[in-house]
Amino acid sequence: MEIPSLMRRLGALLIDWIIAAFSAVTLAGVRYPPAPLDEDPSQTFIIIGFFVLEVGLLTGLVGCSIGKRLLGMRIENPDGRPIGVPRAILRTLLLCLVLPAIVMTDDKRGIHDLAAGSRVVKA
């Protein structure tokens, strides 16, 4: 099992965020960039909602988001299978808080991975 680099993970996160933002623009009429939070926080929260749904559902069902798939990574539980939708949604919500993803163990698992019982590995 090989652990992907932080740059690869950030690249996948950026790809997933762009997909969520374009989806929100196309399907929900959000403008991009969204209005500042003090003017209209709903636009940002709609994009976050699309991000959580896209990443959470794909990760839970097939083991990777679009960004992770493109960059050769997957999310798995300790026995190598996808973590399931509820745990993937939890993981993605914690990822949106940023800090749980920054604080990592020696084996490069963030708090969001520890809470979900998951790990990121190269596909």
From TrEMBL:
The keyword Cell membrane applies. The chain crosses the membrane at residues 12-32, 44-67, 88-105. The keyword Isomerase does not apply. It is found in: Cell membrane. Residues 4-117 form the RDD domain. Keywords: Cell membrane, Membrane, Transmembrane, Transmembrane helix. It is a multi-pass membrane protein. GO terms for cellular component: plasma membrane. This is RDD family protein. It comes from Aeromicrobium endophyticum.
